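Figure 2 data, in text form.
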Amino acid sequence: MTQKIERLIEELKMRANELKSSLLAERETNSKLQQENDRLKADLEVLTDELSKRNAEFVELEKSVEAMKENNTVSSEVKVTKEEIDEMVKEIEYCITQLKQ
C-alpha cells in the first residue's frame, strides 16, 4: 500500500511539473502576443493619422479642382492635380485596406 501511495505521489509531482512547464510556456507566448498586439496598435494609430492627413489633402485638392472648373481654367496644372488625386485615392484605399486587416 505504501509503494502505491508513493508511486501516486510521484505521478502527481510529475504531472504538477508538466503543468508548471506548460503554464510558463503559455505565459511566455501570451507576453509575446501582447507585445505584438501593442506594436500593431501603434502601427494602426500611425496609419490612422496618415489616413486623416491624406483625406484632408484630398478634400483640399477636390476643392481646388472644383474651383478651377467653376472658373473654366483647365490647364496642365489641373491634369497634374488630377494625377495627384488619383494617387492619393490609391493611398487612401491602401490605408483603409490596412486598417481593416
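Caption note: The mean pLDDT is 87.
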